[in-house]
Design a protein that fits this description.
alpha/beta; 10 helices; 13 strands; binds coenzyme A
Length: about 325
Protein backbone atom coordinates (compact mmCIF):
# COMPACT_ATOMS: atom_id res chain seq x y z
CA UNK A 1 0.00 0.00 0.00
CA UNK A 2 1.44 3.43 -0.89
CA UNK A 3 1.90 6.01 1.83
CA UNK A 4 0.95 9.70 1.47
CA UNK A 5 3.81 12.18 1.77
CA UNK A 6 3.64 15.96 1.92
CA UNK A 7 5.72 17.16 -1.03
CA UNK A 8 5.07 20.88 -0.61
CA UNK A 9 3.49 23.52 1.59
CA UNK A 10 2.59 27.14 0.83
CA UNK A 11 0.45 29.99 2.08
CA UNK A 12 -0.94 33.29 0.92
CA UNK A 13 -2.04 36.22 3.08
CA UNK A 14 -3.79 39.44 2.00
CA UNK A 15 -1.82 42.70 2.18
CA UNK A 16 -4.29 44.69 4.25
CA UNK A 17 -3.73 44.58 8.02
CA UNK A 18 -6.36 45.13 10.70
CA UNK A 19 -4.48 46.08 13.84
CA UNK A 20 -5.65 46.18 17.45
CA UNK A 21 -5.46 49.97 17.19
CA UNK A 22 -7.90 49.81 14.25
CA UNK A 23 -10.29 47.69 16.34
CA UNK A 24 -10.08 50.19 19.21
CA UNK A 25 -11.84 52.62 16.85
CA UNK A 26 -14.62 50.12 16.06
CA UNK A 27 -15.49 48.56 19.44
CA UNK A 28 -14.88 49.12 23.16
CA UNK A 29 -11.57 47.25 23.49
CA UNK A 30 -7.86 47.88 23.89
CA UNK A 31 -4.60 46.63 22.43
CA UNK A 32 -3.57 45.54 25.93
CA UNK A 33 -6.77 43.48 26.45
CA UNK A 34 -6.55 41.77 23.06
CA UNK A 35 -2.84 40.95 23.37
CA UNK A 36 -3.09 39.63 26.91
CA UNK A 37 -6.29 37.57 26.32
CA UNK A 38 -5.49 36.26 22.84
CA UNK A 39 -1.87 36.96 21.81
CA UNK A 40 -3.11 38.69 18.64
CA UNK A 41 -1.66 41.99 17.40
CA UNK A 42 -3.09 42.13 13.88
CA UNK A 43 -4.95 40.13 11.24
CA UNK A 44 -5.06 40.24 7.44
CA UNK A 45 -8.22 41.23 5.59
CA UNK A 46 -9.00 40.21 2.00
CA UNK A 47 -9.09 43.03 -0.54
CA UNK A 48 -12.54 44.07 -1.80
CA UNK A 49 -13.50 41.66 -4.57
CA UNK A 50 -11.16 38.93 -3.36
CA UNK A 51 -13.07 35.78 -2.40
CA UNK A 52 -11.96 32.58 -0.69
CA UNK A 53 -11.22 30.92 -4.06
CA UNK A 54 -8.80 33.76 -4.96
CA UNK A 55 -6.80 33.28 -1.76
CA UNK A 56 -6.98 29.49 -2.20
CA UNK A 57 -5.76 29.62 -5.80
CA UNK A 58 -2.81 31.87 -4.89
CA UNK A 59 -1.65 29.56 -2.11
CA UNK A 60 -2.25 26.54 -4.36
CA UNK A 61 -0.20 28.01 -7.22
CA UNK A 62 2.80 28.47 -4.90
CA UNK A 63 2.38 24.88 -3.63
CA UNK A 64 2.41 23.56 -7.23
CA UNK A 65 5.56 25.53 -8.04
CA UNK A 66 7.34 24.34 -4.88
CA UNK A 67 6.33 20.74 -5.53
CA UNK A 68 7.82 20.86 -9.00
CA UNK A 69 4.68 19.29 -10.49
CA UNK A 70 2.45 20.42 -13.33
CA UNK A 71 -1.22 21.41 -12.84
CA UNK A 72 -2.13 18.32 -14.90
CA UNK A 73 -0.40 16.11 -12.31
CA UNK A 74 -2.95 16.98 -9.60
CA UNK A 75 -5.53 14.17 -9.44
CA UNK A 76 -7.85 15.68 -6.83
CA UNK A 77 -8.39 19.05 -5.15
CA UNK A 78 -10.01 19.38 -1.72
CA UNK A 79 -10.70 22.88 -0.37
CA UNK A 80 -11.48 23.06 3.33
CA UNK A 81 -13.49 26.20 4.04
CA UNK A 82 -16.49 27.46 5.96
CA UNK A 83 -16.64 30.74 4.04
CA UNK A 84 -17.27 29.54 0.47
CA UNK A 85 -17.43 32.14 -2.32
CA UNK A 86 -21.11 31.25 -2.75
CA UNK A 87 -23.55 28.45 -1.92
CA UNK A 88 -22.80 26.82 -5.25
CA UNK A 89 -20.67 26.00 -7.13
CA UNK A 90 -18.05 24.84 -4.68
CA UNK A 91 -15.08 27.07 -3.90
CA UNK A 92 -12.89 24.14 -4.97
CA UNK A 93 -14.30 24.28 -8.51
CA UNK A 94 -13.73 28.04 -8.68
CA UNK A 95 -10.15 27.67 -7.37
CA UNK A 96 -9.55 24.71 -9.72
CA UNK A 97 -10.31 26.88 -12.74
CA UNK A 98 -8.16 29.76 -11.41
CA UNK A 99 -5.18 27.38 -11.02
CA UNK A 100 -5.70 25.75 -14.42
CA UNK A 101 -6.34 22.31 -12.90
CA UNK A 102 -8.53 19.73 -14.61
CA UNK A 103 -9.04 17.25 -11.74
CA UNK A 104 -12.15 16.54 -9.64
CA UNK A 105 -12.62 19.19 -6.95
CA UNK A 106 -14.86 19.51 -3.90
CA UNK A 107 -15.29 21.53 -0.70
CA UNK A 108 -15.11 20.13 2.78
CA UNK A 109 -16.58 21.97 5.76
CA UNK A 110 -15.35 20.95 9.18
CA UNK A 111 -14.85 24.59 10.25
CA UNK A 112 -11.42 25.22 11.79
CA UNK A 113 -10.66 21.47 11.76
CA UNK A 114 -11.26 21.35 8.00
CA UNK A 115 -7.60 21.10 7.05
CA UNK A 116 -7.07 18.02 9.26
CA UNK A 117 -10.26 16.39 7.91
CA UNK A 118 -9.05 17.08 4.35
CA UNK A 119 -5.63 15.55 5.10
CA UNK A 120 -7.43 12.40 6.24
CA UNK A 121 -9.53 12.27 3.03
CA UNK A 122 -6.50 12.89 0.80
CA UNK A 123 -4.46 10.25 2.62
CA UNK A 124 -7.24 7.66 2.35
CA UNK A 125 -7.59 8.22 -1.40
CA UNK A 126 -3.82 7.95 -1.95
CA UNK A 127 -3.43 4.87 0.26
CA UNK A 128 -6.33 3.22 -1.58
CA UNK A 129 -4.49 3.79 -4.85
CA UNK A 130 -7.33 5.97 -6.24
CA UNK A 131 -5.12 9.04 -6.75
CA UNK A 132 -1.39 9.71 -6.82
CA UNK A 133 -1.22 13.46 -6.20
CA UNK A 134 -3.78 15.40 -4.15
CA UNK A 135 -3.87 19.08 -3.29
CA UNK A 136 -5.41 20.14 0.01
CA UNK A 137 -6.14 23.82 0.59
CA UNK A 138 -7.44 25.44 3.76
CA UNK A 139 -8.83 28.90 2.95
CA UNK A 140 -11.18 31.29 4.67
CA UNK A 141 -12.34 34.88 4.36
CA UNK A 142 -13.73 35.10 7.87
CA UNK A 143 -14.09 38.88 7.59
CA UNK A 144 -17.19 38.10 5.48
CA UNK A 145 -19.01 36.55 8.49
CA UNK A 146 -17.54 38.61 11.35
CA UNK A 147 -19.70 41.22 13.08
CA UNK A 148 -17.35 44.19 13.51
CA UNK A 149 -19.59 45.58 16.25
CA UNK A 150 -19.18 42.44 18.43
CA UNK A 151 -15.98 42.84 20.47
CA UNK A 152 -15.97 39.23 21.65
CA UNK A 153 -15.50 37.84 18.12
CA UNK A 154 -14.15 40.59 15.83
CA UNK A 155 -10.81 40.69 17.65
CA UNK A 156 -10.07 37.04 16.87
CA UNK A 157 -10.46 36.37 13.17
CA UNK A 158 -8.54 37.10 9.95
CA UNK A 159 -8.35 35.95 6.32
CA UNK A 160 -5.80 33.68 4.65
CA UNK A 161 -5.04 30.48 2.77
CA UNK A 162 -2.60 27.61 3.10
CA UNK A 163 -1.99 24.63 0.81
CA UNK A 164 -0.18 21.32 0.77
CA UNK A 165 0.34 18.70 -1.91
CA UNK A 166 0.32 15.03 -0.91
CA UNK A 167 1.74 12.36 -3.15
CA UNK A 168 1.94 8.56 -3.11
CA UNK A 169 5.29 7.44 -1.77
CA UNK A 170 7.13 4.38 -0.48
CA UNK A 171 8.37 6.49 2.43
CA UNK A 172 5.85 6.82 5.29
CA UNK A 173 4.56 10.43 5.41
CA UNK A 174 1.12 10.73 7.00
CA UNK A 175 1.49 8.23 9.86
CA UNK A 176 -1.95 8.56 11.45
CA UNK A 177 -4.96 10.83 11.59
CA UNK A 178 -7.57 10.86 14.32
CA UNK A 179 -10.83 12.81 13.84
CA UNK A 180 -13.79 13.58 16.08
CA UNK A 181 -17.06 15.48 16.10
CA UNK A 182 -19.65 16.34 18.74
CA UNK A 183 -22.71 17.91 17.14
CA UNK A 184 -24.33 18.49 20.54
CA UNK A 185 -22.04 21.55 20.76
CA UNK A 186 -23.21 23.03 17.45
CA UNK A 187 -24.73 26.07 19.17
CA UNK A 188 -21.39 27.17 20.66
CA UNK A 189 -20.13 28.59 17.35
CA UNK A 190 -22.45 29.13 14.41
CA UNK A 191 -23.89 31.50 11.83
CA UNK A 192 -27.68 31.60 12.38
CA UNK A 193 -28.86 32.62 8.90
CA UNK A 194 -27.86 32.19 5.28
CA UNK A 195 -28.36 28.42 5.10
CA UNK A 196 -31.44 26.28 4.49
CA UNK A 197 -32.58 26.52 8.13
CA UNK A 198 -32.96 30.29 7.86
CA UNK A 199 -32.33 31.63 4.35
CA UNK A 200 -30.95 35.17 4.24
CA UNK A 201 -33.73 37.74 4.24
CA UNK A 202 -33.53 41.53 4.64
CA UNK A 203 -34.78 41.14 8.23
CA UNK A 204 -32.24 38.48 9.14
CA UNK A 205 -29.39 40.39 7.54
CA UNK A 206 -30.40 43.58 9.39
CA UNK A 207 -30.52 41.62 12.64
CA UNK A 208 -26.92 40.49 12.08
CA UNK A 209 -27.93 36.84 11.74
CA UNK A 210 -25.56 36.21 8.84
CA UNK A 211 -22.64 36.86 11.22
CA UNK A 212 -20.86 34.40 13.48
CA UNK A 213 -22.11 33.85 17.06
CA UNK A 214 -19.81 32.32 19.64
CA UNK A 215 -19.77 31.23 23.27
CA UNK A 216 -16.06 31.96 23.75
CA UNK A 217 -15.67 30.52 27.23
CA UNK A 218 -17.23 27.16 26.32
CA UNK A 219 -15.23 26.91 23.08
CA UNK A 220 -12.07 27.63 25.09
CA UNK A 221 -12.88 24.83 27.57
CA UNK A 222 -13.68 22.39 24.75
CA UNK A 223 -10.41 23.21 22.96
CA UNK A 224 -8.11 22.68 25.94
CA UNK A 225 -9.86 19.37 26.67
CA UNK A 226 -10.11 18.03 23.09
CA UNK A 227 -6.68 18.94 21.69
CA UNK A 228 -4.50 17.04 24.19
CA UNK A 229 -6.86 14.06 23.99
CA UNK A 230 -6.94 13.81 20.19
CA UNK A 231 -3.18 14.43 19.95
CA UNK A 232 -2.51 11.51 22.30
CA UNK A 233 -4.98 9.29 20.38
CA UNK A 234 -3.33 10.05 17.03
CA UNK A 235 0.13 9.49 18.53
CA UNK A 236 -0.98 6.13 19.95
CA UNK A 237 -2.28 5.14 16.47
CA UNK A 238 1.12 5.93 14.96
CA UNK A 239 3.07 4.06 17.65
CA UNK A 240 4.87 7.26 18.68
CA UNK A 241 4.89 9.32 21.85
CA UNK A 242 5.05 13.02 22.48
CA UNK A 243 8.80 12.74 22.99
CA UNK A 244 9.08 11.84 19.28
CA UNK A 245 7.29 15.00 18.14
CA UNK A 246 9.61 17.71 16.82
CA UNK A 247 6.85 20.25 16.12
CA UNK A 248 3.36 20.63 17.54
CA UNK A 249 1.42 22.75 15.04
CA UNK A 250 -1.92 23.60 16.68
CA UNK A 251 -4.80 25.51 15.13
CA UNK A 252 -4.01 29.14 15.91
CA UNK A 253 -7.10 30.36 17.76
CA UNK A 254 -5.87 31.95 20.97
CA UNK A 255 -2.34 31.97 22.41
CA UNK A 256 -3.76 31.08 25.83
CA UNK A 257 -5.39 27.96 24.34
CA UNK A 258 -2.06 26.97 22.76
CA UNK A 259 -0.17 27.59 26.01
CA UNK A 260 -2.67 25.57 28.07
CA UNK A 261 -2.60 22.69 25.58
CA UNK A 262 1.21 22.62 25.53
CA UNK A 263 1.28 22.61 29.31
CA UNK A 264 -1.30 19.80 29.58
CA UNK A 265 0.59 17.72 27.03
CA UNK A 266 3.94 18.49 28.67
CA UNK A 267 5.30 19.81 25.37
CA UNK A 268 8.24 22.26 25.67
CA UNK A 269 7.25 25.67 24.31
CA UNK A 270 10.19 25.80 21.85
CA UNK A 271 8.63 22.88 19.94
CA UNK A 272 5.18 24.50 19.75
CA UNK A 273 4.52 26.58 16.64
CA UNK A 274 2.87 29.91 17.54
CA UNK A 275 2.04 32.24 14.66
CA UNK A 276 -1.19 33.85 15.83
CA UNK A 277 0.25 37.29 16.56
CA UNK A 278 0.28 38.52 12.94
CA UNK A 279 -2.65 36.57 11.50
CA UNK A 280 -5.31 35.99 14.15
CA UNK A 281 -7.49 32.91 13.71
CA UNK A 282 -7.71 32.08 9.98
CA UNK A 283 -9.83 28.94 10.55
CA UNK A 284 -9.02 26.11 8.13
CA UNK A 285 -6.01 28.08 6.82
CA UNK A 286 -4.28 28.48 10.16
CA UNK A 287 -2.46 25.12 10.36
CA UNK A 288 -0.99 25.19 6.82
CA UNK A 289 -0.05 28.88 7.27
CA UNK A 290 1.82 28.00 10.47
CA UNK A 291 3.41 24.97 8.80
CA UNK A 292 4.51 27.09 5.84
CA UNK A 293 6.16 29.64 8.11
CA UNK A 294 8.07 26.80 9.80
CA UNK A 295 9.18 25.59 6.36
CA UNK A 296 10.17 29.04 5.05
CA UNK A 297 12.14 29.78 8.23
CA UNK A 298 14.16 26.60 7.55
CA UNK A 299 13.09 24.73 10.70
CA UNK A 300 11.85 21.55 8.99
CA UNK A 301 14.26 18.66 8.42
CA UNK A 302 13.62 15.33 6.70
CA UNK A 303 12.42 12.86 9.33
CA UNK A 304 10.94 15.51 11.62
CA UNK A 305 7.71 14.38 13.24
CA UNK A 306 4.86 16.90 13.12
CA UNK A 307 1.66 16.81 15.14
CA UNK A 308 -0.94 18.98 13.39
CA UNK A 309 -3.97 19.54 15.63
CA UNK A 310 -7.24 21.38 15.05
CA UNK A 311 -10.57 22.13 16.68
CA UNK A 312 -13.54 24.23 15.75
CA UNK A 313 -17.23 24.67 15.15
CA UNK A 314 -19.29 21.55 14.88
CA UNK A 315 -17.83 20.86 17.33
CA UNK A 316 -15.00 19.17 15.44
CA UNK A 317 -11.47 18.18 16.35
CA UNK A 318 -8.64 16.20 14.81
CA UNK A 319 -4.92 15.47 14.81
CA UNK A 320 -2.53 14.28 12.10
CA UNK A 321 0.89 12.80 12.85
CA UNK A 322 3.18 13.38 9.87
CA UNK A 323 6.79 12.55 9.07
CA UNK A 324 8.28 15.43 7.03
CA UNK A 325 10.03 13.96 3.99
CA UNK A 326 11.00 17.00 1.91
CA UNK A 327 14.75 17.48 1.62
CA UNK A 328 15.07 21.32 1.57
N1 LIG B 1 -12.16 43.93 24.81
C1 LIG B 1 -12.34 44.23 26.11
N2 LIG B 1 -13.12 43.51 26.93
C2 LIG B 1 -13.71 42.42 26.41
C3 LIG B 1 -13.56 42.04 25.07
C4 LIG B 1 -12.75 42.85 24.27
N3 LIG B 1 -12.52 42.58 22.96
N4 LIG B 1 -14.26 40.91 24.84
C5 LIG B 1 -14.85 40.60 26.01
N5 LIG B 1 -14.52 41.52 26.96
C6 LIG B 1 -14.93 41.55 28.36
C7 LIG B 1 -16.20 40.78 28.64
O1 LIG B 1 -17.33 41.56 28.37
C8 LIG B 1 -16.05 40.47 30.10
O2 LIG B 1 -16.41 41.60 30.84
P1 LIG B 1 -17.18 41.44 32.25
O3 LIG B 1 -16.22 40.69 33.14
O4 LIG B 1 -17.40 42.85 32.66
O5 LIG B 1 -18.41 40.66 31.94
C9 LIG B 1 -14.53 40.27 30.27
O6 LIG B 1 -13.92 40.92 29.14
C10 LIG B 1 -14.10 38.83 30.30
O7 LIG B 1 -14.78 38.14 29.23
P2 LIG B 1 -14.49 36.65 28.92
O8 LIG B 1 -15.38 36.23 27.80
O9 LIG B 1 -14.52 35.84 30.19
O10 LIG B 1 -12.97 36.76 28.39
P3 LIG B 1 -11.99 35.60 28.05
O11 LIG B 1 -10.74 35.81 28.80
O12 LIG B 1 -12.66 34.26 28.10
O13 LIG B 1 -11.67 35.89 26.52
C11 LIG B 1 -12.19 35.07 24.33
C12 LIG B 1 -12.71 35.84 25.54
C13 LIG B 1 -13.30 35.08 23.28
C14 LIG B 1 -10.98 35.79 23.80
C15 LIG B 1 -11.84 33.62 24.77
O14 LIG B 1 -12.91 33.07 25.49
C16 LIG B 1 -11.54 32.73 23.61
O15 LIG B 1 -10.60 32.95 22.85
N6 LIG B 1 -12.29 31.63 23.46
C17 LIG B 1 -12.06 30.68 22.37
C18 LIG B 1 -12.68 31.21 21.11
C19 LIG B 1 -12.18 30.50 19.90
O16 LIG B 1 -11.07 30.03 19.84
N7 LIG B 1 -13.02 30.46 18.86
C20 LIG B 1 -12.68 29.91 17.61
C21 LIG B 1 -12.66 28.43 17.67
S1 LIG B 1 -12.04 27.75 16.18
Amino acid sequence: MPSASLISVASWLPEQRLTNADLEKLVDTSDEWIRSRTGIAERRIAAPGDATSDLAARAGAIAIERAGVQPADIDLLIVATSTPDMVLPSTACLAQAKMGLTCPAFDLNAACTGFIYAIEMATAVIEAGRARTVMVIGADVLSSIVDYSDRSTCILFGDGAGAVILQASDEPGVLSVHLGADGSGADLLYVPAGGSAAPATCERISAGETYMRMNGNEVFKFAVRAIPQVTNEALADSGLTLADVDWLVPHQANQRITDTVAQRLGMPSERVVCRIEDTGNTSSASIPIALDSLYREGHLRPGHILALVGFGAGLTYGAAIIRWTRED
